[in-house]
Amino acid sequence: MSATLPIHSATADAIAQAGRLLAEGRLVAFPTETVYGLGGRADRDASVAAIYAAKGRPSFNPLIVHVPDLEAAREVVRPDNRARILADIFWPGPLTLVLPRREGSELSLLATAGLDTVAVRSPAHAVAQALLKAAGVPVAAPSANRSGKVSPTTAAHVAEGLGAEVAMVLDGGPCLVGVESTVLDLSGPQAAILRPGSVTREEIESIIGPVLTAEDSAAPKSPGMLASHYAPGLPVRLEAAQAGPGEALLGFGPAPGAILNLSPSGDLTEAAANLFAMLRALDRPDFSGIAVMPIPERGLGIAINDRLRRAAAPRTMP
Ligand code: TXA
Ligand code: MG
């Protein structure tokens, strides 16, 4: 039996402490108006890997990056006119905007599952707002439940579900909305709702005009499907003992001849933290392919292998 996590009432002192913990790279569970989030620095691969480890997720999906306001969002994304108008009306609030990643942004590639787009949201809950301001860094935060369990709407739910990887649970009372934020893709010319939420299609359309949803056959992507889209341009070969001619070897554990190593000591959290950045670094025309050494199928290794298998699968290019 695991002990339940200590819960801290969200006083000004507790919020300040939680902000310091986040800035140091630790994980903090906090209330938003939708559900409780499990937050970690979105600009640190190790913090994002710790989120996945704490949730026990079998796959890497891109996470929502939480910011206090549009000004802070500009550090990580490039908002266009539609985004500025929607943020002006709905932020802070339960509307997440998927936007092009800002070049040179320090955001963890693990947070976006390797994508060039970033989902950003400014939560309306006063505790979340104060915490994000105290932390002073962008905060990646999926719902604060173990994978496969329902999203938590009270601090007690969070404390029951998660383990000692979480440094602090801030209690701000029950969440008012109870359903995750609406996710709106504005990364291309056609706006599309990727996940329905309490900000409705009609509300969005009244401001920016027609928006696609999963029911529209023309919708470019459907919710949940989208996560898998990053794959290197080079062929990827798995379970490799060594590099073939022209291949770059991506190591794990002791790996003579590896160009890069996900974790020389064989640590799966370190490997997850390095995964997308190293795949990108090796995806260069001077190699013929990327050969990846075996990763154990346990803990975070399950999510790493899931992603690697997708990267190695035959591509259907448009
Ligand atoms: O209400 C909420 O949004 C809660 C609270 C804690 O803020 N957060 C939340 O985060 O639900 P998460 O990480 O569980 O949800 C992420 C959703 C997924 O549906 C994911 O596919 C989508 O956002 N998403 C994230 N980044 C994306 C991207 N770059 N492109 C498309 N979809 C993205
Ligand atoms: Mg969730």
The gyration radius over C-alpha positions equals 20 Å
Task: Indicate the overall shape.
Answer: globular
User: What is the H-and-E element order?
Assistant: EHEEHEHHEEHEHEEEHEEEHEH
The portion of residues forming beta strands comes to: 15-25%
Number of helices: 9
Uncertain parts: 222-228
Chemical compounds bound to the protein: threonylcarbamoyladenylate, magnesium ion
Q: Helices and strands: which structural class?
A: alpha/beta
Percent of residues in helical segments?
Answer: 25-40%
Separation of the first and last Cα atoms: 50 Å
Biggest pleated sheet: 10 strands, mixed
Whole-number average pLDDT? 92
* Quantity of strands, as a count: 14
Characteristic terms for this protein:
single chain; alpha/beta; ten-stranded mixed sheet; four-stranded parallel sheet; 14 strands; binds threonylcarbamoyladenylate
Describe, in plain words, how this protein is organized in 3D.
The protein has helices at 12-23, 45-55, 70-73, 81-90, 126-135, 155-161, 201-208, 268-282, 300-312; strands spanning 7-9, 27-30, 37-41, 64-66, 95-100, 117-121, 139-140, 166-171, 182-185, 192-195, 236-237, 247-251, 260-261, 289-292. The protein has 318 residues and is an alpha/beta fold. The strands form 2 sheets. It has a 10-stranded mixed β-sheet, with helices on both faces. It has a 4-stranded parallel β-sheet with strand order 11-14-12-13. Threonylcarbamoyladenylate binds at residues 32, 34-35, 37, 61-64, 94, 96, 98, 112, 115, 117-119, 121, 123, 141-143, 180-181, 183, 185, 194-195, 223, 226-227.
